[in-house]
Hints:
Elements: E1 7-12, H1 20-33, E2 38-43, H2 45-52, H3 56-73, E3 80-84, H4 90-99, H5 104-108, H6 111-119, H7 128-131, H8 133-142, E4 148-151, H9 156-173, E5 181-184, H10 212-220, H11 241-249, H12 252-263, H13 269-295, H14 298-327
Parallel strand pairs: 1-2, 2-3, 4-5
Helix pairs in contact: 2-3, 3-13, 4-8, 4-14, 8-9, 10-13, 11-13
Amino acid sequence: MTEQRPVVVSGMRPTGRLHLGHLHGALANWVRLQADHDCYFFSADWHALTTSYDRTEVVKQSEREMFVDFIAAGIDPQKATLFVQSQVKQHAELFLLLGMITPLGWLERSPSYKEMRENITDRDLALYGFLGYPVLMTADIILYKATRVPVGADQVSHLELCREIVRRFNFHYGEVFPEPQPLLTEAPKVLGTDGRKMSKSYGNAIDLGESAETTTKKIMGMVTDPARKRRQDPGNPDVCGIYYLHKVYSTPDTVAWVDQNCRTAGIGCVDCKKKLLEKLAPDQERMREKREALLARPKDLDDLVELGTRRARETAERTMVQVREAMRIG
């Protein structure tokens, strides 16, 4: 990797299988970025503890499958650095130091903090780790001198907190870190089986590479336009999760056909779902085959992640040498 290329850092929490929302909201974009950016993609296992501290076995079980999903989706470990957050201890050191200068009020007004407190009611979130996770996120990003962070338009405010922390650090200790800029991505909207945003936390996800049987079962049971009670009632595709999946998987002609016939009751919801499965089911089967081939070679996968983790650790330590010198504590 050359140092002249822009640096991109992003990670995911290993708290369960990845799903179609992850694929189209992040992974597909990561695959494009690795061609002309220095990319660091990691397992955010410490972040996972913010909501799964009492289920740590899930974190470790999910981690390998998550890396399998990364590679099956097209991430090339020869082009991008894949690593485990907790195996690079410099993340914890920088998190601690940044926590010393981050005002409490900044964390309490975080949009994601408020959103998750409102939507996740079955887990204990009244925790320091949950409140302070944006500081750890900042450490994750700037430890590699990231210049760009892939985010959707609705996530720009989350990155601004990171930028505020960077500005505060640089003000007190000198220009050590670049301010990471948002790399806006036009991610397609992917709704879950209940009509809300697809999320592991909401239990409404369709996992990557699910079998044809379970994929079909979930699609056929998905919530559509709640106002469409009978087959002859016209529908509104703009509120239907199936329509948004058509936008991802179907041809423009099929999307137009669905849009027109839903609004005029020319087709029913069952017809619409079956049409989607014509494209989605084969894609899921191809992903399943890739995943199984990777899972059949666990040592090869582990070696790739270990190599990437060593590479990340070396980069992180170079940054921390500069941080300690700037703060005069090294």
